[in-house]
Amino acid sequence: MLYSGTSLKAFQFGTAQLFAEKVVREAPTKLRSQLPITVKITKSSLSKGHAQRGLDFGRSCKNAEALQMSSLSQGTPSIPGTAEVAAKECSLCTSVIAQSIAGATREIAESVDAGADVIELRLDFLAMFNAERDLPKLLAACPVPAIVTYRPDWEGGKYTGPEEERLNVLRMAVALGAAFVDIELKAAEAFFSGPLPPSRQTQIFVSSHNYEVTPDSETLAALASSAWQ
After folding, report:
1. With contact defined as beta carbons under 8 Å apart, do 34 and 23 qualify?
2. Which of 98, 125, 126, 217 would give a disulfide with 26, using CB separation of 3.0 to 4.6 Å?
3. What one-character-per-residue DSSP string does 85-109 give?
4. What is the CATH number of the domain that holds 27?
5. Where is the signal peptide, in residue numbers (predicted)?
6. Maximum CA pair distance of the chain?
7. Which of these, 74, 108, 106, lies nearest to 94 by C-alpha position?
8. What's the total number of domains in the chain?
9. Which residues are 3's β-sheet partners?
């Protein structure tokens, strides 16, 4: 599964729809029916009423034969909330970027109250993060499906520690039954070469990020193909 992290919040500036349509237009046939779309929107934007613009963006992508949300529920039928997310034309996701567990728990509750369908847990923003102690608490605090992300600095995140420790935390999220785990395309081979539960429920997002420009069609197609391999 490809999860495109090229700032879908850019729909506020009119560029994300062009990006999404370009991805869909250039993607291999296999991707046209299987690529899901979730619009990321900040918690403050949710509270300011911008959520409808995000939904409108998602629906406009669907008109371009964009992305079928039903694929999100495959393999995760026992994870609460995934069926509801899959049934929607477009879901709203907000990222929790608090620096403490208490703050993250508050942000989760506020985001869900504001209308988020999916919560992205940005573990790399947490100070003094202890995976064995804190990750189960965060997942338990999410009443909606959670995306577990532990973004390294080389992909625009905050994590600067050893790579294998980061990958092990993401594998732990799989073992704990997180609905989704986000792994960067550049790290995917190393991630999958490590131990994973043989009958996992978690869906894995293979992501690629470019915060500067929308890549050309050939580059997008190559990224999409690589993510599926």
Report:
1. no
2. 217
3. HHTSSSEEEEEE--SSHHHHHHHHH
4. 3.20.20
5. none
6. 44
7. 108
8. 1
9. 207
- Taking the C-alpha atoms of residue 104 and residue 215, their distance in angstroms, rounded to an integer, is 33
Mean pLDDT of 157-174: 96
Out of 35-39, 51-55, 90-94, 182-186, pick the least confident: 35-39
Q: Cα angle vertex 17, ends 12, 22, to 5°?
A: 150
Separation CA 178–CA 131 (nearest Å): 13
> Which pLDDT band, with edges at 50, 70 and 90, does 191 fall under?
very high
The neighbouring-strand residues paired with 219 are none
| pTM across the whole model | 0.69
Q: Which residues sit opposite 23 in a β-bridge?
A: none
Alpha helices (runs of H) in 76-184, residue ranges in sequence order: 82-86, 101-114, 131-140, 163-175
SS3 category, 77: coil
Range of the domain at 101: 2-228
The rounded mean pLDDT for the chain is 71
Q: State the Cα torsion 34-91-39-71 to the nearest 10°.
A: -10
**The two three-digit tokens of residue 65, written as one number:** 């034969």
Say what the pLDDT of residue 47 is: 56
